[in-house]
Amino acid sequence: MKVTQIINVRRMGFLGLLTLMFIFLKLTALSATVAAWSWWWVLSPLWLPWVAVVGFILSVALVLFIGACFIDGWTSTKGYQERKKEKRRQIVENAMRKR
Length: 99
Prior knowledge:
Blueprint: H1 14-28, H2 32-35, H3 39-42, H4 44-75, H5 77-98
């Protein structure tokens, strides 16, 4: 029986390297600018892309919601007026029948 082993090698991307560089500069204080940063900003390459994606998704959802609420009303104004007139006509006809 032949046994094969699969090894997954994953390389660190740009944001991972940037995070390591920021951590190194913060801990060693080689850069006074980075040493003065908060840890939130030092670790920002890890969380900032996720915030950007969530912000984009929420923006698209908001635009779609506003479009569904208001643009439909603008495009169907004529139909709304016609339905309103038809409803008034039915009310008048029902009132006339009751007499």
